[in-house]
Amino acid sequence: MSINYPAELEITPLSHAPSATVTVPGSKSITNRALVLAALTAVDRECYLGNVLGSEDTEVMLSALGALGFHLFGEPITGGVRIVRNYGKERSDLPIPATAANLDVANSGTSMRFLTAMLSLGQGRYRLDGIPRMRERPIRDLLEALRQLGANTVSELDTGCPPVVVEANGLRGGRVRMRADISSQYLSAVLMAAPFADRDVEIELDGTLVSEPYIEMTLRMMRSFGLQVEQNSPGRFHVQHHNGEQSLTNYYIEPDASAASYFWAAAAVAGGRVTVSGLNRKSLQGDVRFVDVLEQMGCRVEECDAGITVHGGKLRGVDVDMNDISDTVMTLGAVACFAEGPTTIRNVGHIRHKETDRIAALATELRKLGAEVEERDDGLTITPRPLTGCAVDTYNDHRMAMSLALVGLKVPGVVIRNPGCVAKTYPGFWQDLQALHRDAV
């Protein structure tokens, strides 16, 4: 996190096709879930998390947990974190040791959603806020769901967005009907808090669930931490009250599949081959299925014990529903610029509520580079045209920066403005991207 980034960064095109093996950092989605689950379940013993991602988003969560009275011990060399709730002579039977806190979650949506639900288990008053963009990101559906379970949660400015104030007296549990068509993180937040309510929780979804693989990730992780949760039917979940016993003391966080998508895409854009180590198709992360889209476009995909390798090939446009892997929409947008024929991305309207309106931002920047883009409410169609390098804006969105950089691997003159925004999830991205120049054939 001490990296000094320039205001602008010009991407150097690859002179040869890459032949590289890349190790990406731990998953942000898994890290922030694991931190919440470890904090809630680690009672009389520590819980050790391995391969914790070091980034702005995860540092926000770590800082928040420290402010809430949890004891965290980092191991920078191994990337591990030890979490203890009761330390030394200090004892607390409360799920949240602190009874008051004013938390700044910066630009971390997972931290805002997960902490809001987690804090409803406490005893006291808690406030959460972030950067101006965070105050534009909706959270009303989560607040309403928590209120059904007995929480006193409000949008302080009555906008349905942060700042959020939680006047906590624990959750009584019971039945809740909620929406998760804007963000699956609402449901994940409720699921992770539910075992610590006074009684079992029954959740019923109203409407369509977006980014469903992230819910499967949450369910699998909860079970790993000894929590009992079942999906009885589509859109219905039963979470048992947790008996308080700690069953897990060690948990390893797998590499980030969303981060891996940029390097698999580099092989698609520039030819050659790129292996991302430590991932396979059984990953907790749905975004590993991005390689299936690249395969449809004409790449060859290999899986082995070392990881997943993408070999570049002649690219053709595809028509794809990306609701389940929406964090890779911008990655595919960059790849689509080098395909033969148009690429249509569908059913991702919810990404307009991310760090920026990702559909509008992607359309705007790809047009600057020369692509033809048709924007729709729930997606876009990208038709390749001759590209010309220019300075592109990133909207303080890490995924915009990393995706648009892929165009610069083939097109001279692509300049990324505010490249430092990658620190949100991948501080070392530019160094790892530069390494492709060294490992070329």
Written account of the structure:
With 441 residues, this protein is of the alpha/beta class. The chain folds into two domains: 8-26 and 255-438, Enolpyruvate transferase domain (UDP-n-acetylglucosamine1-carboxyvinyl-transferase, Chain); 28-240, Enolpyruvate transferase domain (UDP-n-acetylglucosamine1-carboxyvinyl-transferase, Chain), CATH 3.65.10.10. Helices cover 29% and strands 23% of the residues. The chain contains twelve helices and 23 strands. The chain has helices at 28-41, 56-67, 109-119, 140-148, 185-193, 212-224, 257-270, 290-297, 329-336, 358-369, 398-407, 429-438; strands spanning 8-10, 19-22, 47-50, 71-75, 80-84, 100-104, 123-129, 152-155, 164-169, 174-178, 201-205, 229-233, 236-239, 250-252, 273-277, 300-304, 307-311, 319-321, 343-346, 372-376, 379-383, 391-392, 415-417. The protein has a four-stranded mixed β-sheet. Strands 4-5-3-14 form a four-stranded mixed β-sheet, covered by helices on one side. It has a four-stranded mixed β-sheet with strand order 6-7-9-8. Strand 4 and strand 5 (80-84) form a beta hairpin. Helix 1 runs parallel beside helix 6 (212-224) and helix 5 (185-193) packs parallel to helix 6 (212-224). The mean pLDDT is 95.
